[in-house]
Specification:
Keywords: Membrane, Transmembrane, Transmembrane helix. The chain has four helices and seven strands. The protein is an alpha+beta fold. It folds into two domains: 62 residues; 81 residues, PH-domain like (Roll), CATH 2.30.29. Helix 1 runs antiparallel to helix 2.
Length: 161
């Protein structure tokens, strides 16, 4: 079996993941908790139990997604750029490995949302006919270099055919 790719993401991506996950978990929590709280204010005991259960599940989810998962997720995310292909490995429970030959690459791009921008990070996206593959959370200059190198290798691979 081939060794794992050599490069890891920028460590600041763990903070970005925590912020994103906290936002989504809180939105889901509010969508579930508020109706229970409104009905519980009317004196319904079942709604009080539902609100308490929702609160407990939310607290457990916060611990799992904000404390436990980011370091594991970070350690499993790896990538490597060779002259012939891009190799991406990721996943905690279901581990995935993508080897993308540059002859198949149609487009390379960098993306940067507001939270990534706040931390000076960007994501590199490599598109093929089969779909897009993203490497999230790279330092912005590293992301630009990776994007440009991948685009150059894709151009060279097409010229060789």
């Amino acid at each position: 079996m081939r060794e794992l790719p050599a490069h890891q993401l920028d460590p600041k991506v763990k903070i970005v993941w925590r912020i994103n996950d906290a936002i989504w978990l809180t939105l889901v929590f509010l969508c579930v908790f508020v109706p229970f709280a409104v009905v519980a204010a009317g004196g319904e005991q079942v709604a009080v139990v539902g609100a308490v259960v929702t609160l407990v599940v939310y607290a457990l989810a916060l611990v799992l997604w904000l404390v436990v998962l980011p370091p594991i997720r970070f350690s499993r995310w790896r990538y490597e750029l060779s002259d012939d292909y891009l190799d991406i490995a990721r996943g905690i429970v279901w581990r995935k490995r993508f080897v993308i030959p540059f002859i198949r690459v149609q487009n390379t791009d960098t993306r940067q949302g507001p939270i990534l921008r706040m931390f000076g990070l960007a994501s590199v996206t490599v598109a093929t006919a089969a779909g897009e593959h993203e490497i999230p959370g790279l330092a912005f200059d590293v992301a630009e270099q990776l994007r440009d190198r991948a685009a150059e290798l894709a151009r060279l691979a097409r010229e060789d055919v």
